[in-house]
Amino acid sequence: MKKNLSLLLVVQMLFSSNIYSSKIANNAEGLKPTVVGNPTENVIFISPNGNDGNAGTKRHPFATLERAKQAIKNNVGEPITIYLREGYYPLEKSFVLSKNDLSEATPIQVSSYPGERAHIIGGKEIHGFTALDPQSEDYKKFEAEIRDNIMVVDLIEKGIADFGNLSARGFGRDIQPSGLTLYFNEKPMTLARWPNNDWATIDNVPESLEGKGFTYDSNRPAKWLNAPDLWLHGYWKYDWSDTYVKVASIDSAGKTILTEEPYSGYPFTKGKRFYALNLLEELDSPGEWYLDREKGKLYFWPPSDLQNAKVFVSLLQEPLVRIEDVNNT
Question: What is the pLDDT of residues 133-144, one digit of tens each?
Fold first, then answer.
């Protein structure tokens, strides 16, 4: 028999690798919070300031969802509410609830505490951005008029070395994580791209390219010849089918771009739209960022003051929450 499980979540997915920030719903106002000596009776409390050695009560909350899962394992039939107090709950792996974690017919509600907001995230908060040193090589990488806007942080020094990878994802392809993404005050920022807020278009598709590329009519790609991991995102034939493709080479004299397998899915088509991304050379507007994966340096033009902002990078390469072999989810 499957177990009953009710996870009442409103999930705002700030996903790119997967920071899946789950903003947990404030839907527990109708339930009266109860401080219980034994957390498996009715209500369990979790707090960013809690401790998994605590009792799981309102006054002495747990710190993690995993500890709450342990506490409810032997509950028989009684409805359970798990309250998360205000704050952020980073996960390093999926939080999984399955029939093996529950007793028979055990409805469970996971909610933020009434009047508060809890966030389950698959990432890490980042501090320590600094301005570019005018004497550094980094400073020279940017145009003079924007250099003082660019901030940088060394992710390796922050204990982050696995950045994930950009991948050939999109329509008709397997769902894949998109690599590390930067979030500023809970909003995903823009991986440095060109054009900034518009699209370029394919100039022509010569038969000689055999569906592997196309020509363009701009001088801009000449700036990208040394870009180590250049990608294009485009609607290559239909306006309901988009894919990401990796650039194999650019011929600036012939104004030709060749891409890598699996190419574009639907064939490249004259006049269709695309933009280029993952380009340090195009970090030129507020909200854009770029990660030097070799050195672990993240460059960012903040859209507003960093001092009071919450800045996260996504790390988790799998879903935040998995519910397996249960009912009423």
Answer: 999 988 998 999
Structure tokens at 195: 């054009």
Q: What percent of the chain has pLDDT over 70?
A: 84
What is the reported pTM? 0.83
* CB hemisphere CA count around 158 (13 angstroms): 21
Dihedral sign computed on CA atoms, order 312, 316, 318, 323: negative
Q: What are phi and psi of 190, to 5 degrees?
A: -95, 120
What is the mean pLDDT of the segment spanning 68-94? Answer: 87
Encoded tokens for 291: 């990660």
- What are the structure tokens assigned to 47, written together? 């707090």
* Closest alpha carbon to 79 in 23, 112, 32, 9: 32
Residue 27 tokens read as 């839907």
Amino acid identity of residue 32, one-letter, is K
| CA 2, chain centre distance (Å) | 32
Instruction: Please enumerate in sequence order all residues whose Cβ is within 8 A of that of 296, keeping only pairs 6 or more positions apart, or say none.
Output: 154, 155, 156, 157, 160, 161, 163
Whether residue 36 has pLDDT greater than 50? no
pLDDT in the model for residue 230: 98
DSSP string of 288-326, one letter each residue: EEEEETTTTEEEE--SS-STT--EEEE---S-SEEEESE
List the domain boundaries for the chain.
3-122+318-327, 130-314
